[in-house]
Amino acid sequence: MVNLNKIFIDAIETLIDAKVRKNTTQIYTGLVVLEDGEKKVKVKDKIYKLPVYGGNIGDLVTNQTVKVFIPQGQMSQGFILALK
């Protein structure tokens, strides 16, 4: 016999987990790429022009891996953390 309450609770938990994950800061490993003469970062198969904290975009090397921070899941607020 199927326990409908358990199925319902599991579904709610899945929805809440997805929402919380989406709205928390996410950290990805990105790859510095050269596109249209500019250095940008490739994250999850998409290319972005993001600011660099702790350095300059010019200091990064093509094909270098970097850490990309996405605050509250908002790519528009994303930045590259340059480690020296």
Describe what this molecule looks like in 3D.
The protein has 84 residues and is α+β, with helices and mostly antiparallel strands. Helix content is 23%, strand content 36%. The protein is built from one helix and six strands. The chain has one helix at residues 4-22, and strands at residues 26-35, 38-43, 46-48, 52-53, 65-70, 79-81. It has a six-stranded mixed beta sheet with strand order 3-2-1-5-6-4, with no helix packed on it. A hairpin with a 2-residue loop joins strand 2 and strand 3 (46-48). The protein starts with a helix and ends with a strand.
Secondary-structure topology with pairs:
Elements: H1 4-22, E1 26-35, E2 38-43, E3 46-48, E4 52-53, E5 65-70, E6 79-81
**Helix percent band:** 10-25%
Largest sheet: 6 strands, mixed
Mean pLDDT: 88
Instruction: Report Rg.
Output: 18 Å
Provide a brief overview of the structure.
It is built from one helix and six strands.
Descriptors for this entry?
6 strands; six-stranded mixed sheet; alpha+beta; single chain; 84 residues
